[in-house]
Amino acid sequence: MANDIVAVMERLGHRRFCVGAHDRGARVAHRLGLDHPECVASMVLLDIAPTREMYAHTSAPFAQAYWHWFFLTQPQPLPENMIGSDPEGFWKLK
Fold this sequence. Notes:
Layout (H helix, E strand, L loop, with lengths): L1 H10 L5 E6 L1 H12 L4 E7 L4 H6 L3 H6 L1 H5 L6 H8 L1 H6 L2
Parallel strand pairs: 1-2
């Protein structure tokens, strides 16, 4: 996704740009900054939990609360197909 952002920004004529991101978008922005530092003029990341630490302390209650983190790590096209079959239903899951 970070590469996609760079491609879109280049297409729009921006070789260097500011990045602001929140939560999961901040994870993508973090990757963008690591892979394409020459493109980032400045960056603000809000509300991003350190993934390594979250997984290091995984428990059953954590896995149940954050099931989507584990679901989205499945090989493609499993998550895409399942979400795509009922996007509204997936969005409303708690």
